[in-house]
Amino acid sequence: MKRLEDRLQVALFDRTQKTPKLNQLGKALIPKAREVVRMYDSMLDDLTGEAALIGELKLGAIASHIGGLIPLSIKRLIETYPKLHIQVVPGISEDLAEQVERGTLDAAVIAKQTDLGHNMQWQPFTQEELVLLTAAEVEEDDPVTLLKKMPYIQHNRRATVAKLANEWLRKNNISVTASMEMESLDVICSMVAHNLGISIVPNLCVADPLFSSLKKIPLSNQASPRIVGLVTQADCSKSLLVDKLLDELKSTVIISKSRQP
After folding, report:
1. How confident is the model at residue 261 (pLDDT cuts 50, 70, 90)?
2. I need a labelling partner for 138 at 20 to 30 A (CA). Which of 166, 200, 237, 242 fits?
3. In b/e form, how buried is each residue of 154-183, taking b as 16+ CB within 10 angstroms?
4. pLDDT digits (tens, 9 = 90+) for 17-51
5. CA 158/CA 169 separation, integer angstroms
6. Residue 9 exposure: Cα atoms within 13 Å on the Cβ side
7. Residue 192 scores a pLDDT above 90
8. At 204, is the secondary structure helix, strand, or coil?
9. Which pTM does this prediction carry?
């Protein structure tokens, strides 16, 4: 970013905050930059319809799906298009959506956001009900009782699931004792597996072995589900590839659900 500013001899980012953000001049350059990228990515399209499927895909993904949904879907995609190179970037939905909007990611698997820009395309493909996650040896089945007496493991407060969980707790007038705050679901699962606490989590549509081994207690129907989908720019130059990825994500979810007891 600094080299680009030095080359143009202008400031493109506001650095008064912890995370640099585009200033007005930087935002004004976005449409022209997108056009350059789009022209570059489509140079070979007139020669072969498969050209858009042999390049690189920069994919963001919420960390909770890095262990199951993402690798299984990518495996299916690469089996069909072996020349495809994929880079996966984990993160929080809000941050990943911003990276897609800036053009640093081609697409991202995220939880539904309410403030996506007008130039963004959102394609949901599954929803995950919230459950109370406990160690396998926990015998109590009432979520309210457990939440009142056991330590609570909090998600990163910026994560969508943290907001959904807090919303349900408020609706039910439940006050929890947060003993830890974790950045990702896989770390929460590890803590829960050692019976260090409990947590409200999405019941993953494609579960990894550790998540599958833990006890999942349903919450009341007042709990809003986490809606998961694929976000891209509306004029994404890799729309053909993104559509193929979306098909594989949907197929992976369907196959996983068919195997559940």
Report:
1. low
2. 166
3. bbbeebbbbebbeebbeeeeeebeeeeebe
4. 777 788 887 777 777 776 666 666 555 544 445 54
5. 16
6. 0
7. yes
8. coil
9. 0.77
- Tokens 């539904």 label which residue? 112
Two structure tokens written together for 7 = 């080359």
Q: What is the pLDDT of residue 51?
A: 46
Q: Give the tokens for residue 191.
A: 């803590």
Report the top-level CATH class of 42-126+228-259.
alpha beta
Task: Take residue 38 and report the two structure tokens written for it.
Answer: 């789009």
Structure tokens at 14: 């506001």
Q: Quote the DSSP letter at residue 246.
A: H
Tokens found for residue 196: 């260090």
Taking the C-alpha atoms of residue 173 and residue 114, their distance in angstroms, rounded to an integer, is: 25
Closest by CA to 178, choosing from 151, 208, 150, 141, is 151
- The β-bridge relationship of strands 226-233 and 120-128 is antiparallel
Where are the alpha helices (H) located in 81-221, listed in sequence order?
93-102, 143-149, 160-171, 185-193, 209-213
d(CA 64, CA 14): 31
Separation CA 85–CA 96 (nearest Å): 19
Question: What homologous superfamily does CATH list for 130-224?
Answer: Periplasmic binding protein-like II (3.40.190.10)
Task: Report how far residue 182's alpha carbon sits from residue 190's, in angstroms, rounded to the nearest whole number.
Answer: 11
- Rg (C-alpha) for the chain, rounded Å, is 21
Q: How far apart are CA 169 and CA 172, in angstroms?
A: 5
Which residues are bridge partners to 122 per DSSP? 231
Instruction: Tell me where in the chain the CATH 3.40.190.10 domain(s) lie.
Output: 42-126+228-259, 130-224
